[in-house]
Amino acid sequence: MAAAVSKIMRNQDLILTASKVEVVTRFRSTIGLRGRMATRLQPNHPTDDPAGVMASIVDGLLLGSGDAVIGINPASDNIGDIGRLVSLVSEIIERYSIPTQGCVLTHVTSSIALIEAKLPVDLVFQSIAGTEAANAAFGISLSILREGRDAALSLKRGTLGDNVMYFETGQGAALSAGAHHGVDQQTLEARAYGVARAFSPLLVNSVVGFIGPEYLYDGKQITRAGLEDHFCGKLLGLPLGCDICYTNHAEADQNDMDVLLTLLAAAGVTFIMGVPGADDVMLNYQSTSFHDALYVRELFGLRRTPEFERWLEKMRIAGSDGQLRAPSAKHPLLTAGGA
């Protein structure tokens, strides 16, 4: 029904209606409050090099990014490598008392293994889809997702709430797996949101243009899909964010992403991505940068999560008005110990 409603709406309807919906979730920060937009700091590295990951984290924090999550897509599926990334993110969050959460976006079963090994996992991540067959292609079932959530809850790492799941979705996932049963992409995307809301996630985002032009051909289609996804997710009660992105072989460019970013900010998007230079050097696609978040915050007067806002002021990264300050060479994040 949510998908059907979205199909008869113009873009302005999708924007205005979604802007009226407030969905609030909590772990170490309060996400989704009206008038605020969070960012995922995405410090991916092609070899998971700790120094490279840390450099991107410091860059993002100094540009006011990371209040939704510091979330890394690992280049490797090796449990040892993933565990080192989990510990790295946890260490910087604890060292500087950052009111955010970390996540290494590995398979849910890997997260369960890390939790069993007593590693400091904050959020359990999983890509999900809108049919049982497509989820089976991802190697998951509802029972496995439930097991992952229960494992994360057992650690009791949240300080403000117990929303411990992070889901990513995207139109075309079921089609690419040959598991769509003849159903259109948008309806199956809305069904994925039905899966997500059963697990009370902290974060859900559509990776709207990542799957490529075989599913969303050009900038116009990516824009429409992003607005549909955001509307359907919010209508179904989810903290819907968006990876505003495109692959390099799509008929799209960064101007298309500027348009979708602006429209989603007007629609009240929960969070967006912060990628150094908007160019993900590990996944090889184009997203939004730390600076893009600054642009849209200034345009609409959007603030960060309240806890992160106070931390930025305490760390002399931003003033009480939320505006960034130029860090001194002796700033804790730029010292040898911090970087």
What is the element layout, followed by pairings?
Layout: H1 2-7, H2 11-19, E1 25-26, E2 30-31, E3 38-41, H3 50-62, E4 69-72, H4 79-95, E5 102-104, H5 108-116, E6 124-127, H6 132-137, H7 142-155, E7 165-169, H8 173-176, H9 185-197, E8 203-207, H10 219-235, E9 240-243, H11 254-266, E10 271-274, E11 279-280, E12 285-286, H12 290-300, H13 306-314
Parallel strand pairs: 3-4, 3-10, 4-5, 6-7, 7-8, 8-9
Antiparallel strand pairs: 1-2, 11-12
Helix pairs in contact: 2-10, 5-7, 9-10, 10-11, 11-12
What is the typical, i.e. mean, pLDDT? Answer: 96
Given helix and strand content, the structural type is: alpha/beta
> Which architecture does the CATH hierarchy give at level 2?
Alpha-Beta Barrel
Query: Could you list the spans in which at least 5 consecutive residues all have pLDDT below 50?
Result: none
Give me the CATH fold name: TIM Barrel
The total count of strands amounts to 12
Please indicate the count of domains: 1
CATH superfamily: Aldolase class I
What would the principal axes of the Cα set say about the shape?
globular
What is the straight-line distance between the termini? 49 Å
Approximate helicity band: 40-55%
**Count of helices?**
13
